[in-house]
Automatic annotation (TrEMBL):
<feature type="domain" description="Aminotransferase class V">
    <location>
        <begin position="24"/>
        <end position="332"/>
    </location>
</feature>
<dbReference type="Pfam" id="PF00266">
    <property type="entry name" value="Aminotran_5"/>
</dbReference>
<keyword id="KW-0808">Transferase</keyword>
<comment type="similarity">
    <text>Belongs to the class-V pyridoxal-phosphate-dependent aminotransferase family. PhnW subfamily.</text>
</comment>
<comment type="function">
    <text>Involved in phosphonate degradation.</text>
</comment>
<feature type="binding site">
    <location>
        <position position="339"/>
    </location>
    <ligand>
        <name>substrate</name>
    </ligand>
</feature>
<keyword id="KW-0032">Aminotransferase</keyword>
<dbReference type="InterPro" id="IPR015421">
    <property type="entry name" value="PyrdxlP-dep_Trfase_major"/>
</dbReference>
<dbReference type="InterPro" id="IPR012703">
    <property type="entry name" value="NH2EtPonate_pyrv_transaminase"/>
</dbReference>
<dbReference type="InterPro" id="IPR015424">
    <property type="entry name" value="PyrdxlP-dep_Trfase"/>
</dbReference>
<dbReference type="InterPro" id="IPR015422">
    <property type="entry name" value="PyrdxlP-dep_Trfase_small"/>
</dbReference>
<keyword id="KW-0663">Pyridoxal phosphate</keyword>
<protein>
    <recommendedName>
        <fullName>2-aminoethylphosphonate--pyruvate transaminase</fullName>
        <ecNumber>2.6.1.37</ecNumber>
    </recommendedName>
</protein>
<keyword id="KW-0670">Pyruvate</keyword>
<dbReference type="InterPro" id="IPR024169">
    <property type="entry name" value="SP_NH2Trfase/AEP_transaminase"/>
</dbReference>
<dbReference type="GO" id="GO:0047304">
    <property type="term" value="F:2-aminoethylphosphonate-pyruvate transaminase activity"/>
</dbReference>
<dbReference type="InterPro" id="IPR000192">
    <property type="entry name" value="Aminotrans_V_dom"/>
</dbReference>
Amino acid sequence: MKLVDRKILLNPGPATTTDTVKNAMVVEDICPREEEFGSLIEGIKTDLVKVVHGEGAYKCALFAASGTGGLEAAITSAVPEGKKLLVIENGAYGARMVKIAQTFGIEVVHYQLEYGDYIDVATVEKLLAEDQTISHLAVVHHETTTGMLNPVQKICDIAHNHKVEVIVDCMSSYAGIPIDLREWNAEYIISSSNKCIQGMAGLVFVIFKESLLPSLANQKRSFYFNIYNQYVGFEKTGQMQFTPPVQVCYALRQAINEYFEETEQGRWNRYQNNWDVLVEGLQDLGFSFLLPYDQQSKILLAIIEPKSEKYDFDEMHNFLYEKGYTIYPGKGAKKSTFRLSVLGDLHEEDINGFLSELKRYMGSL
Ligand SMILES: Cc1ncc(COP(=O)(O)O)c(C=O)c1O
């Protein structure tokens, strides 16, 4: 079964995948307009909603794109002309949503924090109370810039008290951290095929409240990234409007099967255990972290870069890369960091293997 060497990706996706997910891409050639392929997509869309307990109230629009495409679809489809979007930015992915909105001429109310600072929900409340023209709020669940888990439940509750709809970027939390849409009640969440769901890169999905379809029908900002057209187009024809990455869809089917086999709690437990092993090992090596423990996602860790003059991130990266471990640089956090993530098909022995190579590197400094 094994096709290629196993690499340990400690970057926050695209993730290390199982051999069975890789092999699922080797399928007979098929035209995506065939009924058989339509059934595959229908099943994927239904199950993506189930992962976040949205059955009955939520639907899924699936696009061929990277994660950013899904953010663009949600923002451009959701916010009506003449209304404003409140974006909470405490990392680079909040900033990305600001840029998307501005690109399409959507007026943004910007709650900007340093990358690594925790959201003050009283400020969110104040900003919403001050401006009745805000119709939507956008926030990142797991801010991959720093590894911070933002307080989405509280933010959704405040927004809904102000009759404001919520768009949550769940790119690097969906299928890793348990999410229950019956509690959040968020209007839109977005994630992609290559992060905690552990499929291949190439698909992004927006899970949205079905009751929003009539208002979504009025949005014409984008032709390709249009939730209504993409969702209704598939419902009418059983085909995706535009060519999907066929083999990536088969891999996603397999990845979803593996998610349900592992179970929501089982995956979370595995990620948490890997994270605990990683944190302990790094502390033993003398590392410290950007965020306090209770703000951590337990999916990604931003680690303060060593002070040693001999330390060089690229050198450390290359040393570890040669041994089969991929690490990730920092991204504008308020202190200088590098990042390690446990999302993907990773197990305790992988983390221990990484830690012993890192120890060798640190010893060489
Ligand atoms: C929280 C978050 N949002 C958005 C994105 C953007 O995804 P992509 O690079 O697939 O466009 C990422 C990517 O890592 C992310 O972590």
